[in-house]
Every structure is written in C-alpha cells, then in structure tokens.
Amino acid sequence: MTEEKRFIQKQINLNQYTDMIRKWALDRGLLTADIQPQQQMLKTVEEVGELARGVAYKDLWSTADAIGDVYVCLVVLAEQLELNIEECIWLAYSEIEKRTGTLEDGLFKKD
Questions:
Q1: Which end of the chain, N or C, is less packed with Cβ atoms under 10 Å?
Q2: CB 20 within 8 A of CB 49
Q3: 110 contacts 102 by C-beta, under 8 angstroms
C-alpha cells in the first residue's frame, strides 16, 4: 500500500477483532434463529467479487478492505452455522501444513 493510503490500526490481535465482529453481528440481529445462512453466503460472494475487482485493478486499498469484509462475512457465516471460525481455520491449516507440490504459472499445484 502506498504511504498515503495507510491506515492507523489499533494494536489488537485477530482473536480480539473476531470477538468484536461476533458482538457486532449479535447486536445487529445477524445471529438470531430466523436468519438464514444462505443470505450471509450471498453477502460473502458479493464481497469476494469486490476483492476480485480490487485485485484486477491493482487497487491495494480496495483489496485490503475487501479481504477484511470477506473475513467479517465468514465469521458471521460460521456463527450462523454454529461453527467456530478459529476451528475452521485450524481444520484448513491442518490439511495444508504438510502438503507438497509445485508452483506452476504462479499457482501452487498440490501433489
């Protein structure tokens, strides 16, 4: 990111942000029984589209914002599905941590 587009970040860790996101979602009624995760999934896809746009146009500020938005959406979706985002990330990492493969055309191709 260019210096003029840097933003000031509070010195807290990802777990604290995740807890703040959960509270934010609860306060706004996104975690009630009548909320359908399918709607949150659509919001997630919308945010992934914004991420793709930011990457395609090499707009680092929009890309960074969209990555954050996708994370927020995934935290809320996990909560709606009664999953724990930290456990989801652990499951994903435990699958890839010992994965081997090669880099082909800028993409990692697993063995």
A1: C
A2: no
A3: no
- Does residue 35 lie within any of the structural domains? yes
CATH number at residue 39: 1.10.287.1080
Q: What is the pTM of this model?
A: 0.86
Residue 54 lies in a domain: yes
Give dist(CA 7, CA 99) in Å, integer.
35
Report how far residue 37's alpha carbon sits from residue 32's, in angstroms, rounded to the nearest whole number: 11
Taking only the tens place, the pLDDT of each residue in 49-83 is 999 999 999 999 999 999 999 999 999 999 999 99
76-92: pLDDT as tens digits: 999 999 999 999 999 99
The closest alpha carbon to 70, from 49, 93, 98, 97, belongs to 49
